[in-house]
Amino acid sequence: MRTIVALLTFLFFCTSYAQTKTTYTYAIKGTDTLMLDVYLPKKSKTTDAFPVLLWMHGGGFGGGTRDNPSEQKLAEYVTKHKVVGVSISYRLTRKGTLTGFGCDCPKEEKNNTFKAAVEDYMDAALFLVKNKEKFKIDSSKIIAGGSSAGAEAILNAVFMREHFIQDLEKYKTVQFAGVFSLAGAVVNANYITKDNSIPTVLFHGTDDNLVPFGTAPHHYCDTNKPGYFMLDGSNTIIRKLNELETSYYFYVVKGGMHEMAGIPFYDLDNVLNFFKKTILDGETIQIKKIKSKI
């Protein structure tokens, strides 16, 4: 009898508190069916219009999924702060390739990989804008977020849209209100201007061996390698945002490597509070935290 009662209690707990998600197809490209998971805040009303975190997972453009445990946990977590969590799949153009996305991957292929990822991300954002009432989203408050490869894609989508997108008119209704990047980089930080700079959160380790902390070759490839491709990492992006007097939250780990691509659940409350103050309340905030690797 006690076993039955315990089981019923467990099932009631799971049913009452488990976060549900809804999955949608946002694009079909060749053999790829691209989907996204939408997590809504609990007890939302029909008239609600929430900010949204549009998240792109990492994996070197060859691995990872939108419903990795960490991605699911993140999407569930932000709903507690009255933010809609959305995690997307995208074309993994380096999956199964001999060169992967390292120093043997030619520069042109790296550029095309970024381009495909930017296009997919913009299509996901456009899908949300077109369905904003259905998803209870305030389309003027889209936070672009991603980790590692996903962070590179979203940074390029936000700051270098005109470089990677041919049909800019198609995405004229897509505007981003904030950026949340974990160990990411942009192809050229000079594309960041007063017109496109927005409140930005960056986490990065100073000794990241894959995505440069400052300005350096991707994967630190030698100049004679096919994959020699310069990127502007978080520290370079922050210098640009500082010049433009744009809000930022920069979390630096001295000696930290690419593990900073992991979702920082230990600091998410501060991140979400930063976005609330800058996006919702209109404050200008510039914060830099420096920690030493343990």
From TrEMBL:
InterPro entries found in the cross-reference section: AB_hydrolase_fold, BD-FAE-like_dom, GDXG_lipolytic_enzyme
Coiled-coil residues: none
Keywords, ordered alphabetically: Hydrolase, Signal
All residue ranges annotated as the BD-FAE-like domain in the record: 36-175
Record's signal peptide: 1-18
Gene Ontology molecular-function annotations: hydrolase activity
Protein name per its UniProtKB record: Lipase
